[in-house]
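tool_log.txt
---
The assistant was asked to compare two proteins side by side. It first ran the structure predictor on the initial sequence, then on the second. Raw inputs and outputs are pasted verbatim so the downstream comparison step can read them without reformatting.
(1)
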Amino acid sequence: MKKVEAVVRHFKLEDVKNALTERGIHGMTVTEVRGFGRQKGHTEIYRGTEYAVDFVPKVKIEVVCSDSNLQSVIDMIVKTAQTGQIGDGKIFVSDLDNAIRIRTGEQGEDAL
């Protein structure tokens, strides 16, 4: 099993969610996050005063999938979240040892 964490733009969340559910991925966790990468934030002007916005708001989507579905999940996220502009986000993939469904006690891929 793999855990896929994708940090994407807010307005791409619905597109990514719909693409993944069409592919049969029904479980995901979404968190509002803030951070920066190479762009290192940006500057804005508010009431005539310029200030730096160091942390850019994004959305983190976490999906757990089987090894066989991994490339499909990654491809769908890239295809739907990509705008071609700086700040599109990142995808991180981790190995997952186990998953347990609390209600039934199912483990491994059965718990997904």
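(2)
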Amino acid sequence: MKPIPSSRIQTPDSHRFPWYVRLFLANQRRRYGQELEPARLWARTPKVFATLSLLYGALDRRRSPIEPALRSLLTVRVSQINWCAFCVDINSATGMKRGVSAEQFAALENFESSTLFDERQKAALAYAEAMTRTDAGVDDALMARLKARFDDDAVIELTAIIAFQNMSSKFNAALDVAPQGFCRAPEK
């Protein structure tokens, strides 16, 4: 198992998590080859961690009205804006497994002018930026653009995904959680 990178708050290896958290962390070791530092931090407050895990599972479910690749594009863009290197790392790796190209991730900052994104993706990304940037906000024109491509239930789900990623990336950025090397650039 790779060592977990440090953050501003350390969770000692000797920390004793409740049984249900230990099961979750064991699943991470199986899935990622290591425990995720944010999980170890959140898990220091087990009831909050359990609730957070259930919320994430509900938002990242197979039957979501928001397709997996778009969910990944949104989480990476929100993470870029919030300066969360860990989130960009893990969400980019997940996105590549979901069919998002490295070129799309590289073009995210200029998605509006890129031909790599369709109008549905551009509307969702514009919404993510408006929700995330404190100087922007969501206006009626943006909501109309969004509703032309998503039904009301999908807009609610988009809002929840973006809000969750804002919470997650701001938590990790404030605690300076380092990337764990999930998304590596291809060798040239």
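---
observation on (2): The mean pLDDT is 93. The chain is about 60% helix and 0% strand.
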